[in-house]
Amino acid sequence: MKSFSVIFLIVFLTACNTGTRNDSETGQWMQLFNGQDLAGWDIKIAGYELNDNYANTFRVEDGLLKVRYDAYDQFTNQFGHIYYNEKFSRYRLRVEYRFVGEQANGGQGWAFKNSGVMFHSQSAVSIGKDQSFPVSLEGQFLGGDTSGIRPTMNLCTPGTHVHINGDLISQHCNNSSSKTIRDESWVMAEFIVYGDSIIHHLVDGDTVLTYTKPVIDGSDVPEDFPLPDGFPLEEGYISLQSESHPIDFRKVEILLLD
Question: pTM of the predicted model, to two decimals?
């Protein structure tokens, strides 16, 4: 009887491990960026109407989604975002990015090698014409200069708050534990999002930040925003940023979670 129990346990654990491995390897990842055009995405740049892609800021070249400022005379706070036109709640999101070239003239110092992914975001159509950033959670991408510490995949919270280790965090940006990336190499950023429960940030497979219970911060939202202060955020849209430094994206994919 003891021998049978041991054999059963081994078979059971093997089956469980195999199932987990197969789920990881064969899950249905959906490509949000198709590598050819901007189908499925909406553009909103501060100061411009919905889908006015000012100065061809967002473009597809060589199979990459590129953010560029070569047709700008001056960057004057034309903060922009390109939104996938479907809401999500529980998922894994992978984004491969790299910073390239020089920052646009007029870009602010903090925006040097600065971009990111906004998620649990309000929709593109609900953004005010002059609104710079959506109410959302931001996985902040940062690149380093020749010296200094500048981790990537931090959390910024326009119009929102989160909890870390059980405490409500009102600080706008919170650093991850990632290393500083100084060159123009590709970085794999990943988010594991469980609705309004727990959220993880990963860089090249390593967890660098975890937080829980995102809520609306009523003191930092547009006038007449429809959700009240403290409302839990369990779903929303996903967007990529334009903040004055050129950046390339070669993969934007999502795996829905039960």
Answer: 0.89
Query: In the numeric block, which tokens belong to residue 220?
Result: 């930092």
- May I ask the CATH class of domain 30-256? mainly beta
List, in sequence order, every residue forming a beta bridge with 173; answer none if it has no partner. 156
Domain range summary for the chain, segments of one domain joined by + = 30-256
Which two structure tokens, joined as six digits, stand for 91? 């998922």
Tell me how far apart the alpha carbons of residues 208 and 180 are, in angstroms, rounded to a whole number. 12
- Write out the DSSP string of 31-92: ESS-SS--TTEEEEETTS-TT--GGG-EEEETTEEEE--TT-S--SS--EEEEESS-BSEEE
- CA pair distance 48, 97, nearest whole angstrom: 26
* Residue range 184-218, pLDDT digits in tens: 999 999 999 999 999 999 999 999 999 999 999 98
CA 244 to CA 60: how far, in whole Å? 17
SS (H, E, C) 112-181: CCEEEEEEEECCHHHCCCCCCCCCCEEEEEECCCCCCCCECCEEECCCEEEEECCEEECCCEECCCCCEC
